[in-house]
Specification:
The complex is a heterodimer. By secondary structure, chain A is mostly helical. Chain A contains eleven helices and two strands. Chain A has a two-stranded antiparallel ribbon. Chain A is globular and about 55 Å long. In chain A, 55% of the residues are buried. The model of chain A has no long low-confidence stretch (mean pLDDT 85). Helix content of chain B is 39%, strand content 17%. Chain B is built from 13 helices and 16 strands. Chain B has helices at residues 2-23, 52-71, 91-102, 118-128, 160-163, 165-174, 187-202, 221-229, 242-254, 266-269, 302-315, 322-338, 346-353; strands at residues 38-45, 79-86, 111-114, 135-137, 153-155, 178-184, 206-213, 234-237, 262-264, 285-290, 357-358, 370-371, 380-381, 388-392, 396-398, 401-403. In chain B, the strands form four sheets. Chain B has a six-stranded mixed beta sheet, with helices on both faces. In chain B, strands 2-1-3-4-5 form a five-stranded parallel beta sheet, sandwiched between helices. In chain B, strands 11-12-13 form a three-stranded antiparallel beta sheet, with no helix packed on it. In chain B, strand 15 and strand 16 form a beta hairpin. In chain B, helix 2 crosses helix 11 (302-315), helix 2 runs parallel beside helix 12 (322-338) and helix 3 runs parallel beside helix 4 (118-128). The chains are: A mainly alpha, B alpha/beta.
């Protein structure tokens, strides 16, 4: 049971990190970037190359973050920048970017899954269960980034400016804030974040272009369960659905995990559409 | 000036009309008696998606064999041409693409490669049969091997029954009494459970627990733990694609299952698991591989093995020559069957295949030869190991052949 909970927290941490990535562009540029999970996988593949080249771990993370930032910035320029505002066309174009990234990663690194082993994965016994060291690192990363970005968004000038831009682009522009740069910085930051967590996620899932769609969907559910725009909500949503999925698989049967996750998702949408700790937005019609 | 422009425009329109008329003709892909020189093969497979590497392996083997057959004159004088149609390994897309091909108005292919997964093949067969299209695939679900219902379809891989012979021998030899299973939640997984249950009964063993996993799952620790909870003497697992294989091995470590011996199936064996799993994860694990894929086995003739090994190594296919070997045999079997036909049409070859006896040293997978019959359109092979041998999962592929590592 405890090992299953650890497994749930590990996968839940991955969903949390994806949801955090969605929130970075959503709260800053007002764009839900469906290609985020693909950039995470780019980071994982960069790690594969880095390991093969014998690079030190710290350098692998830096290179993965830089590559992730470049990819996300390119995506912003090509798939988001020139779209008409307010029509949510980016929901389609970022899915397109995701498809392009699947093809590009398969072309560059091949479609075969590849092992990412930055350090040994001998399981640790903890509270009566077993967990891989990387699972604990992912959990720590989810908590630190979730809490850190929550504080950043609510306590810093840049964070507040970003929230203002996402809420009302025109009003933000009238205040003299360069919203174009804000959007580029948001995408670059989310790309760097994706690149940074990519090697860790790849250690759990292997580096494969095709896992991104699963991560994207589960990350999206975590985002909505926790509350869109809330980084603390992403942590609660991600870890929650990870544990629910694992326990359903253990106690009800294999493959019931997805049913349980979608049942909880539907229940939250019906009972509390703004998510567990999201805020209800008023929209004039 | 105005008149000059008018004439130029008229000439331009005429040229465009002529080009359009040319392009509206069916592509030069004739079939049967009308075939002017090509034997067209359409591979409907997941060219993209999780099984893209597997599809690339089969395509490579088929193309290597096609080049050899073409050099020797082709199929009754017709050069083999292979087209790949991407269905993303999705049965729904496979059906759509096949219907598009059949209803395109063009001449139909001589041979369809009907999917990488049993689900794709089973979805396409009800469309292929009324169209009387010869089809082949490496898929092995027992429902596919139904000559009465699907007279134009033939398998090229051993069935799970043949593949698992060597696994069943191991159960007997090691005295395993309780077998845990972790298999994909698809048609192949169902067939693996059925086949291994039969073998277990015959050897006085029992299946202690069966867990099926979703191929798109992120983590299989819980599923592996459930298998271990049934206290098996040995765990059997398999995968339909490379990504699940890596996650199964990772789950084995996290769930603390490395002390329980693991036998990985055909799907994992074909993919060089050492590439997607750590040394700890593949320890105490064996997997069945074709003897011809083992370095120094010398079970296949060099004249067959060398071009395949060279092509596979040049392409950098990480799983070795197992996948390419299947595609290679498929084309050569078609060539063999065509020898007794009048003009090498798909329908004639299908008829000849029904009684085909492939001689020894012709097939790379089955060097002792094999046959098809009216009762079975899957290869009936000689011997009690299905041409396979169990090797450690940590073995490595070097120059496209398995180098056994203890």
């Amino acid at each position: 049971m405890i090992t299953s909970i650890w497994a749930g927290l590990t996968t839940g941490s991955i969903y949390t990190l994806i949801a955090i990535g969605y929130n970075i562009t959503l709260t800053t540029a007002g764009v839900l970037n469906f290609a985020f999970a693909n950039i995470v996988m780019v980071g994982a593949f960069v790690a594969v190359t880095g390991i093969a080249m014998g690079l030190p771990i710290w350098l692998i993370f830096i290179v993965a973050a830089v590559v992730g930032a470049l990819v996300a910035t390119a995506e912003e320029r090509v798939a988001v920048r020139f779209l008409p505002k307010g029509q949510h066309a980016e929901l389609i174009t970022t899915i397109g970017a995701s498809t392009v990234l699947i093809g590009a990663t398969a072309l560059i690194w091949g479609s075969t899954a590849q092992r990412v082993e930055l350090f040994p994965q001998n399981p640790i016994s903890l509270f009566g269960g077993q967990v891989a060291p990387n699972g604990l690192i992912l959990l720590a990363a989810a908590l630190i980034f979730g809490l850190g970005l929550h504080l950043f968004n609510t306590r810093t000038k840049y964070g507040l400016a970003s929230l203002a831009h996402a809420a009302d682009r025109e009003a933000t522009m009238l205040r003299g804030i360069n919203v174009r740069w804000l959007s580029i910085i948001a995408f670059a930051a989310s790309g760097a974040f994706a690149g940074l967590i990519g090697p860790l996620v790849g250690m759990s899932t292997t580096a494969t272009p095709f896992i991104a769609i699963t991560l994207a969907i589960k990350g999206f559910i975590a985002l909505y369960c926790g509350g869109v725009g809330s980084q603390a909500g992403a942590v609660i949503g991600g870890l929650g659905i990870g544990v629910i999925e694992a326990l359903a698989n253990l106690l009800i049967g294999p493959n019931y995990g997805d049913f349980a996750v979608f049942a909880v998702f539907l229940a939250i949408l019906l009972i509390r559409p703004q998510g567990l700790i999201g805020t209800r937005m008023l929209r004039s019609v | 000036m105005k008149r000059h422009v008018t004439i130029t425009a008229a000439v331009g329109i005429a040229a465009v009309a002529a080009l359009a008329a040319c392009s509206s003709q069916p592509a030069a892909t004739p079939s049967g008696e009308a075939n002017g020189g090509t034997f067209r093969v359409a591979m409907i497979v997941g060219q993209t998606g999780p099984l893209a590497a597997t599809a690339a392996d089969f395509q490579l083997g088929m193309q290597t064999a096609a080049d050899l057959v073409n050099k020797e004159g082709g199929i009754k004088g017709k050069k083999i041409v292979i087209d790949v149609i991407d269905d993303k390994s999705d049965p729904t897309q496979a059906v759509t693409k096949l219907q598009g091909l059949i209803n395109s108005g063009e001449e139909q292919p001589d041979l369809i490669y009907a999917g990488i997964t049993s689900s794709e093949t089973l979805a396409m067969l009800p469309i292929l049969t009324p169209a009387k299209l010869l089809s082949m695939s490496q898929t092995t679900n027992v429902q596919i091997n139904d000559p009465a219902q699907y007279p134009y379809h033939f398998g090229i891989s051993p069935t799970n029954e043949d593949t698992l012979k060597v696994v069943a021998n191991e159960f007997k030899e090691k005295g395993y009494k309780k077998i845990g299973m972790l298999v994909p939640g698809d048609a192949n997984g169902d067939d693996l459970v059925k086949t291994l249950t039969n073998y277990a009964k015959k050897s006085g063993a029992e299946i202690s627990g069966v867990e099926k996993y979703d191929a798109n799952g992120v983590d299989y620790t819980v599923q592996y733990q459930r298998v271990l909870n049934s206290k098996p003497d040995v765990v059997f697992t398999d995968a339909s694609g490379p990504a699940p294989a890596g996650r199964i091995f990772q789950a084995r470590v996290t769930a603390g299952g490395t002390d329980v011996p693991l036998i990985a199936g055909n799907g994992i064996a074909g993919q060089n698991p050492g590439k997607s799993a750590s040394a700890d994860a593949v320890a105490n694990c064996t997997m069945p591989v074709f003897k011809f894929t083992i370095e120094g086995s010398k079970v296949a003739a060099d004249s067959l093995l060398d071009p395949l090994t060279k092509a596979t190594t040049e392409k950098g296919q990480t799983g070795g020559i197992f996948g390419p070997g299947i595609g290679f045999d498929l084309i050569r079997v078609i060539a063999k069957a065509s020898e007794s036909t009048k003009s090498g049409t798909g329908e004639q070859i299908a008829k000849a295949m029904g009684t085909l006896k492939v001689p020894a040293d012709y097939s790379i997978q089955y060097p002792d030869g094999f046959s098809y019959s009216a009762e079975s359109h899957f290869p009936t092979i000689k011997g009690d190991t299905g041409g396979k041998e169990l090797i450690p999962c940590g073995s490595t592929v070097e120059n496209s052949l398995w180098k056994i590592t203890e």
